[in-house]
Amino acid sequence: MKDFGKCESTDMIKIGTKELRYPIVQGGMGIGISLGNLAGAVAKAGGAGTISAAQIGFKDPEFVKNPIACNLKAMETQWQKAREIAPNGIIGFNIMVAMNHYEDYVRQAAKLGADFIVSGAGLPVDLPAYVSDENENPVVEEAAAKKRISLIPIFSSQKAAKVLLKYWSNKYGRTADAVVIEGPKAGGHLGFQENRLESMAKEDYKSYEAEIGKILETIREYEEHFRRKIPVILGGGISGKQEADHAFSIGADAIQVATRFVTTVECDADPAYKDAYLHAEKSDIVFTKSPVGMPGRAIRNSFLKQIEAGVKILPKKCLGCLKKCNPKEIPYCITEALIHAAKGEVEEGLLFCGADAWRAEKIQTVPEVFRDLLGEAIEDRILP
């Protein structure tokens, strides 16, 4: 096992052209939970900070009238905030494939000079085209060439890994710069069938490790083909050093952590949102289904109880956030539900979380979470 307090440069992995000082990638959390402040703090501490692009402009007074323009504007605002906090840190965006105007958000991230783009909630089959289309967008091409933006897809199965890596190899002559393997204990939308999630929740998590091994086999094939390292970032249920150590022991180069950063001073979430995590019991963490059919994990509150009882909460106005969403058929609007939560209206909103959200006991700083995950050896290097 590496001693991350005494990391040599040969132990480090790269995101774009920059070395990751500590093997922690902060997971993207939307709407409005992981913005510039949290991403900047994580990057300053030596990890990779992630800004969620999902409806990122929700606080703009013009958001309801023109959500796309507000979102693109807010991406720049939050990027600048993060970069001011960590001028030389590793900062990128999480952009869901399921979002409408996905290409626009990707191009904006590239134009801003993001170090990386993490993309899931669907397979990002044409992601490489959106950051290197020289004829249509030379500004993006120039930024991509200069920054070597890392493209990081999220997989939960070997099948998905095989399909995407083969497609990128054949069509674009390239492979992923890193890969996130997101397990069943992660928060937000999950890449699993609902019945499989429930069965895995009842079994030991090790039942999923065989799948991780298969994904790693596929990644190694493309490492050999392209003669380059593809760093593997393992996420889902990594809430302490024991889980982190185990992730590294089964082949992870870094860990993706999201839930642990919600209850930090630096997190962009409303204080009431953080309190909901602090007061949650294990029995409060439940599976739910988003309006577009994707399973997810959230904290049971008044809102979820209504949804479970079959109450339909009609959207005030469709903001066109997700591709496969019909406002006339959905039980509720996920944008409205997540915005309520982000604003601190926690009983009226959807509180996405990881499986171990109930373990949060106090508000910490980002560096303190780093120490909890990687051990006391890093304390003197990143704590004030």
From TrEMBL:
Gene Ontology MF annotations: dioxygenase activity; nitronate monooxygenase activity
**Functional note:** Nitronate monooxygenase that uses molecular oxygen to catalyze the oxidative denitrification of alkyl nitronates. Acts on propionate 3-nitronate (P3N), the presumed physiological substrate. Probably functions in the detoxification of P3N, a metabolic poison produced by plants and fungi as a defense mechanism.
Q: Which SUPFAM superfamilies match?
A: Inosine monophosphate dehydrogenase (IMPDH)
Q: Does the keyword Flavoprotein apply?
A: yes
The protein's name in its UniProt record:
Probable nitronate monooxygenase
Q: Which UniProt keywords apply?
A: Dioxygenase, Flavoprotein, FMN, Oxidoreductase
One protein family per Pfam: NMO
Point out the coiled-coil segments of this chain.
none
Q: Which organism is it from?
A: Mediterraneibacter butyricigenes
InterPro entries recorded? Aldolase_TIM, NMO
Q: Which domain of life is it from?
A: Bacteria
**CDD domains in the record, alphabetically?**
NPD_like (cd04730)
